[in-house]
Amino acid sequence: MKSLWTVLHIAGVFVLGILILMVASTLAQILSVTLASGRAIPWLMPMLTHGFMLLLSLAAMAVFSRGRLGVFGVASFRIRPFALIAGLSLAVGLAANLLFSVLELEFDPVPGFTFFNTVIFVWLWASICEEALCRGLLQTLFAQATERSFNFGPLKLSLANILAGVMFCLMHVPVIMMGASPTVLAVLLPAAFILGLIAGYVRENRGSLYPAIIVHMLFNISGSLVEWVIG
Question: What Rg, from alpha-carbon coordinates, does the chain have?
Fold first, then answer.
């Protein structure tokens, strides 16, 4: 009976995540039509989608925790022991983006973005909103369903972390509808999954969502670094 409840709990968390993404996208589409008024504004739709994602995630956190958002990682953390894992996230991002360049894969998920748009949306906004959903809300709810973990040599990863990483990976599958080729997905999805595991690891071990956001930011920044050096 307990195993069945665990499976249902995990499935319910996945459904919640999918619903948040669907509602956020729908609300963004409705609002963007009103705000754009026929004008082409490249940053509007992704900014609104992520904004609603953040609001819905925070609302769900507040409901499940009865206003105690610290349960979901909205809490301070110590920065000093975090340097090594932050460097790892940057290295993974650099490796993934270098692979894109070596394979000459052409894909721009945010066409028309200026450098300022990239800094605000890709580096900051996307990192905050996606981590609030995946490592803040979903990983915490997964952890409430199961405490199981797996040892990979000296590294210990919880099942909750892995499940949140899977969800984060699946969030990036729709880029194929934006013109991404199967080869792009073959590089992007594993990189997203690894990023999710790193972010989830520091979320658990620091007891805070903020280091996960920093990890995500460094990963996204790495893409710009590769473009500056190679481009």
Answer: 18
Please provide the average confidence, as pLDDT, over all residues in the chain: 86
Domain of 33 in residue numbering reads as 2-230
| 140: its two tokens | 């915490």
Q: What is the pTM of this model?
A: 0.90
Question: How many domains is the chain built from?
Answer: 1
Q: Where are the beta strands (DSSP E) in the chain?
A: 149-152, 155-158
Cα–Cα separations (whole angstroms), residue 150 to 156, 157, 158, 161: 6, 5, 6, 10
- DSSP sequence for 65-120: HTT-GGGGT-S---SGGGHHHHHHHHHHHHHHHHHHHHTT----SSTT--HHHIII
- Residues 206, 76: Cα–Cα separation, whole Å: 9
- What tens digit of pLDDT does each residue of 58-98 get? 999 999 999 899 999 988 766 666 666 777 777 877 777 77
